[in-house]
Inverse folding.
């Protein structure tokens, strides 16, 4: 079942730099939630605080009411959190299918000895997740690429493969870091369709960091706008787009005055 | 590479390669003279040692400069056990587990450090190991070292000792290679590869990089112990010099030249380790080190992926021809191993059955 995510006064500081200052918001279970803001606003840092890759200097991050700040990323992943990265890091020599199968790691049974002697249990589990991974690739329009090495695919398709890898983890909370960055328009459309289908078919909460306002407007129930590490506003995507503070943050005060 | 053959692939194709390999390896010891059998057995010993190094370094990306220490430890345990008339199976188990436990303890501390710090800790192993072996002379025989003879051919087999020993090396080494090959595919292969490539991604899918670095290092130490057992079986003598730092670096060079992160590369690495010093000695004994260095540089310039990468274009070609016909799975490591076997077969065919 979908997870609830709550940030309470989250601050992050690297030496003298305040990356995040007292950011608070709540993502309801099953929501698609947008995190927007200009470059350097702290969106990815906030993501890293949620996924456990950074530890917030202050504040709490809780999933379903349980504080998780400071937990290791691997622990969080085993409790239903999955994420993608801005720069997909795939095994380029391996096939797309092998890359997706990495997402099955925590669900595959057996220790090293069992896998070394290839017991029936490990072979069956591997086969079962192979089928599941192929099914996910199929649903995301990548079935044709399953047996190709990842380096034969474009950057945009790498993002799709990474999404499948995250989905194979069967997450309750999915964090997508700039899924549309660098994608041509047609692939952004694919992505929007994929995330919509996700919401329709799976019980999952999705948080998206994104610059592409079209994608944010098309998908999200609610957004938080960050600027210089502070929460600027919270509301719907439409409200954010018409908010003068947001326009100012994106294009600067003078330009915002010109627009007005 | 790490891909399980699909059921669509016909079973005889899958079994033909390995079967051929087994037959060739069963016949070879009967055909070759004693000196050649000994060289092959030595190659087997160091191929296993390189395989262990490959597991932690080639596959998991953790620089280990101390692999020879575990070979030495396994050899000493074997020598001590054999000279005290312990059951050989017990000796074998101890020769695996003692290095594995030592490796585990070292890794628990070293893997916390990450990066070059692991390399520095592993450098210390042979550097500490050599004087330690000299000091603990009650167990190690000090600078003189230990001799132990075991693994003579049982009566009734009709085999010479060198043939019997080579069979033992092939059986034990073959089992280690088979188990390792299985391990580096599937779940653990993916884990080791992603820990090498990107620890953030690894942890984001629920993998604790620390845990699997420790695992890889422990298994490498265990395999090192097995190679130490085989070392005593074949060479029958060990001294502190066995685990000198220079040998550890040569083992590393052998892994790189054979092919990092490759099963076939480990075998080729073992062959390099044994054969190249002998060949350079034949050319000019005073230039041995220089010629070895030159070989290393040439291989690195021409084949950065090591000798094993020579077999890969074959696999690639095979895969793309499959793709044109339909969705058949890509290259499997057995394809590359197969081509290695194919290169060996003409020799046996030339020699015929004795």
């Amino acid at each position: 079942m979908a997870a609830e995510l709550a940030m309470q006064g989250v601050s992050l500081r690297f030496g003298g730099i305040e990356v995040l200052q007292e950011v608070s918001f709540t993502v309801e279970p099953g929501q698609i939630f947008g995190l927007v803001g200009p470059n350097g606003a702290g969106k990815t840092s906030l993501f890293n605080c949620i996924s456990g890759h950074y530890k917030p200097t202050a504040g709490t991050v809780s999933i379903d009411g349980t504080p998780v700040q400071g937990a290791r990323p691997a622990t969080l992943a085993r409790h239903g959190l999955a994420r993608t990265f801005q720069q997909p890091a795939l095994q380029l020599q391996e096939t797309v299918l092998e890359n997706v199968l990495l997402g099955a790691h925590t669900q595959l049974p057996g220790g090293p000895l069992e896998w070394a002697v290839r017991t029936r249990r490990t072979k069956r589990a591997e086969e079962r997740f192979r089928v599941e991974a192929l099914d996910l690739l199929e649903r995301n329009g990548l079935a044709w690429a399953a047996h190709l090495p990842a380096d034969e695919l474009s950057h945009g398709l790498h993002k799709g493969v990474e999404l499948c890898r995250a989905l194979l983890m069967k997450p309750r909370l999915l964090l997508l870091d700039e899924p549309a960055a660098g994608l041509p328009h047609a692939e952004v459309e694919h992505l929007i369709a994929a995330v919509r289908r996700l919401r329709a078919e799976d019980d999952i909460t999705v948080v998206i960091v994104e610059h592409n306002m079209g994608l944010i407007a098309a998908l999200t129930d609610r957004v938080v706008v960050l600027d210089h590490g502070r929460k600027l506003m919270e509301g719907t995507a439409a409200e954010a787009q018409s908010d003068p503070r947001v326009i100012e943050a994106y294009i600067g005060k003078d330009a915002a005055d010109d627009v007005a | 590479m790490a891909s399980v053959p699909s059921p669509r692939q016909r079973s005889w194709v899958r079994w033909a390669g390995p079967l051929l390999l087994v037959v060739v390896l069963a016949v070879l010891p009967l055909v070759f003279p004693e000196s050649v059998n000994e060289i092959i057995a030595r190659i087997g010993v160091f191929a296993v040692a390189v395989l262990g190094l490959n597991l932690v370094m080639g596959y998991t990306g953790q620089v280990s400069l101390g692999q020879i220490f575990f070979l030495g430890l396994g050899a000493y345990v074997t020598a001590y056990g054999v000279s005290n008339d312990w059951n050989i199976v017990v000796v074998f188990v101890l020769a695996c587990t003692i290095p594995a436990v030592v490796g585990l303890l070292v890794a628990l501390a070293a893997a916390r450090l990450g990066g070059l710090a692991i390399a520095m800790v592993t450098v210390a192993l042979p550097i500490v190991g050599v004087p330690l072996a000299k000091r603990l002379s009650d167990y190690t025989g000090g600078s003189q070292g230990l001799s132990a003879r075991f693994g003579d051919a049982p009566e009734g087999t009709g085999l010479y000792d060198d043939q019997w020993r080579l069979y033992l090396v092939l059986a034990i080494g073959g089992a280690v290679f088979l188990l390792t090959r299985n391990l580096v595919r599937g779940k653990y292969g993916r884990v080791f590869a992603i820990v090498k490539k990107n620890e953030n991604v690894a942890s984001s899918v629920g993998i604790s990089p620390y845990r699997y670095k420790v695992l890889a290092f422990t298994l490498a130490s265990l395999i090192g112990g097995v190679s130490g057992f085989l070392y005593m079986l074949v060479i029958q003598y060990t001294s502190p010099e066995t685990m000198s730092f220079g040998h550890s670096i040569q083992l590393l060079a052998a892994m790189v030249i054979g092919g990092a992160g490759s099963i076939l590369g480990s075998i080729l690495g073992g062959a390099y380790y044994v054969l190249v010093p002998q060949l350079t000695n034949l050319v000019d004994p005073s230039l041995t080190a220089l010629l070895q260095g030159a070989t290393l540089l040439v291989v690195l310039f021409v084949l950065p992926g090591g000798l094993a990468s020579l077999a890969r274009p074959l696999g690639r070609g095979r895969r793309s021809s499959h793709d044109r016909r339909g969705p058949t799975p890509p290259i499997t490591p057995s394809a590359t191993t197969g081509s290695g076997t194919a290169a060996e077969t003409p020799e046996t065919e030339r020699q015929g059955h004795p």
